[in-house]
Structure formats: structure tokens, C-alpha cells
Target: Aryl-alcohol dehydrogenase-like predicted oxidoreductase
Amino acid sequence: MRYTTLGRTGLRVSELVLGAMTFGEQGGVGAPMQECRRILDAYAEAGGNMVDTAINYRGGASEEILGELLAGRRDRFVVATKYTVTRDSADPNGGGNHRKNLRLSLETSLRRLRTDHVDVYWVHIWDRHTPIEETMRALDDAVTAGKVLYVGVSDTPAWVVARANTLAEWRGWSPFAGLQVPFSLVNRDAERELLPMADALGLSVTAWSPLGGGVLSGKYHAGPSDERTRLSRDTISERDLGVARVVEEVAAELGVTPAQVALAWVRQRAGVLPILGARTVEQLRDNLGCTAVTLAPEAVTRLETATGFTLGFPADFIAQTRSWVLGAGALEPHQPRSSA
Model:
């Protein structure tokens, strides 16, 4: 497993992140404690060191399980968790990105994780009712107190993230080092604004649902099975099934699994780290195999063509008018920075 630094920090994180959303059987399809242990051990043996969870995953069981599994080896891992989602739906201040919820959520997560600090603390989702200045200052206070080392943001508009980091830069607060977004061959929306913004600001991107909710693993296209799944095949669009078929074709030609091809496509984007959310150790080991998969440019083009994705306005318009606007001064489009 290769390593890179998280954003513009010196923190080394592995190129694949282990998602602990599957840790626990509460609330649907998930993994029991012993399987979680096997998953974490296999991930660590492969060289992985970053584990991502949240205060609300499995009703809190994910953090509790992770805290138990990390006993005696916590410092060897980069532990990341999130806050925003309500701790108590009957409490008006039980959720959101304001200072009160941040403080109470962080104390709850630290207790469950059995640690005195979180390595990366994510804002889980944009709360339009809390000024971003309040959130950034409260996060910086948590960093100053030593309870958080680095901060990141998930599921938030690009303009909000850019404003937040500009404020942090001007005021000497801790800036966001990472961005977490959904990104896969069936959901490329982040390419429009979020990934270019992350590249420009030097943020690492952790990609959740890199298999499109399992659609790109091939299990839905194969027809009915006894395996428990989060989606019903009838709810998956023909467009997404068509993308999955192309993934399977490329996988067959390379002699690898569809999941490995889909994850390899996400990995080939500089600065993007896929989050692996496995329910069994076998699934995890298959996913880890993506590090050995190299996609030729022809395969990448074939996969991307199947998605029918376009950047839309204004990116497409700007690209189309580049030579008209700049004439002889027109340059090739900016290429994202290479990963470390």
C-alpha cells in the first residue's frame, strides 16, 4: 500500500481508507463484531492506516466497536470521525454544525472511541443555518485543546468550503485538510466543482461509495442472489446498469473483478482516496486488490464514455470558447496535481 500526505499537512495516510459504516448490525445490513475484527486486521496487514467513521453510524455502534478493536494499537491508525447528524432528534440543538453540537458530539465520540483525541474530525454535511465562521472557529478551538489534530469537511458545496478555508487562512485558524464526497463511475458530479476546488486548495479527497452503492461490483447485474444487499435491482437505473456492464467487460479482459476495476478508476484520479466499506473480510480483500490494477488510457476512455457525463455550464462553455477568448494565448486545460 502506498501513502500520501493528507492535504497540505504532514500526516501520512494510506491510499485506501477503511470505512467503518458497516461496523455493527444495528439498522440493517452490517458486520458483527468478530467480522469487524477480521476486516480491520486484514486492512492493517495490507498496510492501511486510516479508518473513517461517524457519530451516527449504526446508532453509535460503529464508534464503539472501533474503539474496542483499536485497544492497544490506537496510535498506529489515523482515526477519523464526523459530527453534524443529530444525537437526539427531540433536541433542537442535538444536530447541526454549531459550537454546542460540536462540543457534545466530540466528547461523545472520544468516549466511544476510547481515545483522548481524534486524528481527523469531519464536518459531516453542510448546515446552512450555522455561519461557517462559527464552525471554523469552534473546530480551531478543538484543535488548540488537543482533542482534534486535523479537520475536514464532507458533503458541502464547493463555494462554502472555499470560503471556509479562506477565512481560516486570513484568521490563523486550522483549515480543512480534506474533503469527503461521493465519487464513482455512476456518480461523477464531484468533477464539476468539488474536485477542481480541492485540487486548487490542496485538499485530499476521500471518496465514499466508490462502487456506487455496490452497483459496480457486478452483484446486481448478475441477477437475484441470496446475498443481503442495500439496494433492490428494480431501483437501479438502466444507465447505471449499463455502466456496470462496461465495468464487467473491462474486468473480464483484465482478469480481475468488477469492483477492482471500479476502484482502480477512482484511484487513478490524483489526490482521491477511495473509502472501502466492506461487510466481510472477503469483500475487503477483493477490494484491496485494486492496488494491483492498472487501467490503460483506452480502458479509462471506454469506462468514462459509458457514463455519458458532461461537466455542464460553465466548465464546458469555458472550454469551448477558450481559443475564441484567448486566441494565440490559449493554453491546454490545467491538469490536476500528481499524488505524492
